[in-house]
TrEMBL record:
Signal peptide: none annotated. This is Uncharacterized protein. Keywords: Membrane, Transmembrane, Transmembrane helix. Its main location: membrane. It is found in: Membrane. The chain crosses the membrane at residues 52-68, 88-108, 120-139, 145-169, 181-200, 206-224, 236-258. The lineage of its organism: Eukaryota, Sar, Alveolata, Perkinsozoa, Perkinsea. GO terms for biological process: protein ubiquitination. It is a multi-pass membrane protein. GO terms for cellular component: Cul4A-RING E3 ubiquitin ligase complex; membrane. Residues 1-29 are annotated as: Disordered. It comes from Perkinsus olseni. InterPro entries: TM_pro_TauE-like (IPR002781).
């Protein structure tokens, strides 16, 4: 584990901030070089275990709440206590949203305070580092919330919206691609696990599709990584992302036109959530 960034004095006057939402720092000029080195060592780690633990905690909690709530063709693990669309169902839905919002606010506050703490010790920010402030945190939080709504309504991947947002934020294309891929793992695996436990997965062709997608992803990633590493064409990732978004937009539009043409251009409106 990392050493504490702020050593406690013998007299007890220097109190360490032990908040789980941020890493403490020392603003004293005499310790700025030491603190800056500790920040750099912390950010240089390839596997930040404490962040993995936080993601795993959110992932496990969401799965537990989804199993208790049910929905999307699955029953609750306690169907008598949590009937579909009953008061307990909507209460658990609200708990899921509240938990995610609370976790997001906590991590956002941590990012903002960490950026401020780094600035006080003249941290050597490099291209691709995000210097968070509360206005940018609020804006991108609302933008990602809108991305989730679009993904749910249109059936598109949230990464198609998050990718351009992160590029606009100044994140390097490689980091943006890796981040969206990681998010997809957590979101898709949680939904998949719920369906598996409900016995709704057709294993006869699910395994085939999974294997094909896995191999295709591995081959594509290997090719792109080789091109970017040898030729330094990071813009290729941006062009690929733009091409995928454009293709998806065209296909969604075409599919919608065909669907409503079959219905003689009659919009039936939204169906009931239950």
């Amino acid at each position: 584990s990392l050493p504490a960034l702020v050593p406690r004095s013998r007299g007890g006057s220097d109190r360490v901030n032990t908040s789980p939402c941020r890493l403490p720092s020392d603003n004293a000029a005499s310790n700025s070089a030491v603190v800056r080195k500790q920040w750099m060592d912390r950010d240089a780690r390839q596997y930040p275990l404490e962040k993995y633990r936080k993601l795993a905690m959110v992932w496990a909690t969401i799965i537990l709440l989804l199993l208790l709530r049910g929905g999307k063709g699955t029953e609750s693990v306690i169907p008598d206590a949590v009937p579909y669309c009953g008061w307990a169902y909507w209460t658990l839905s609200a708990v899921v949203m509240a938990w995610l919002i609370l976790f997001g606010l906590c991590m956002g506050r941590s990012a903002v305070m960490d950026s401020a703490a780094k600035a006080t010790v003249n941290y050597p920010f490099v291209p691709g580092d995000v210097i968070w402030a509360y206005p940018s945190f609020i804006f991108y939080s609302l933008a990602t919330f809108a991305a989730g709504i679009m993904a749910g309504l249109l059936g598109i991947g949230g990464g198609m919206v998050l990718g351009p947002l992160m590029l606009n934020l100044g994140v390097l294309p490689q980091v943006s691609t890796a981040t969206t891929a990681t998010l997809i793992v957590f979101t898709s695996s949680s939904a998949a696990l719920v369906f598996i436990m409900a016995g709704l997965v057709p294993w006869d062709y699910a395994v085939v599709y999974f294997s094909a997608a896995f191999v295709g992803t591995l081959v594509g990633k290997t090719i792109i990584d080789t091109i970017v590493r040898r030729r330094g064409l990071t813009a290729l990732l941006i062009l690929l992302l733009a091409g995928i978004i454009a293709f998806a937009a065209i296909m969604v539009t075409v599919a919608g036109l065909i669907k409503y043409a079959d219905r003689e251009w009659h919009l039936e409106g939204f169906s009931s959530p239950c």
